[in-house]
Amino acid sequence: MLGEFEYLLLTTAARLGDNAYGASIREEIRRSTARHCSTGALYTTLDRLETKGLLKTWMGDATPKRGGRAKRMVRVTAKGLQAATAFYDAVTRASHGASWATSQVPVRR
């Protein structure tokens, strides 16, 4: 089963589609979760997911906007889609019937 960060990375890459590359994935994860995503964690996880066959990466064209550096583009594979769907389904099943109302569960800050 996927880990939480792996799931976030796969779903973010799928949502970004043709615009999925390292920096855009990092920014979208930060925006959607309000959590910092380090460059090292991102690329380590991309490598692991690619080794598992859950996504494919390649170097895009260099762009002047990026100082002539190429983007590492990302595409989720069919196997990645299946893994993300399985993770989502498992979390949904495990959460069935749980009460997440903050008035019923003390929240520590």
Beta strands, count: 2
Number of helical stretches of at least 4 residues: 4
The CA-CA distance between the termini, in Å, is 30 Å
Shape descriptor = globular
Mean pLDDT: 91
| Computed CA radius of gyration, to the nearest angstrom | 16 Å
Give the strand line-up of the largest sheet.
1-2
Explain the layout of strands and helices.
Blueprint: H1 4-16, H2 22-33, H3 39-51, E1 55-62, E2 70-76, H4 78-95
Antiparallel strand pairs: 1-2
Question: What does it look like?
Answer:
The chain is of the alpha+beta class. It contains four helices and two strands, in the order αααββα. Strands 1-2 form a two-stranded antiparallel ribbon. Strand 1 and strand 2 form a beta hairpin. Helix 1 (about 5-15) crosses helix 4 (about 80-95). The two termini are about 30 Å apart.
In brief, what are we looking at here?
The chain is α+β, with helices and mostly antiparallel strands and 109 residues long. Helix content is 51%, strand content 14%. 20% of the residues are buried.
Which labels suit this protein?
109 residues, two-stranded antiparallel sheet, 4 helices, 51% helix
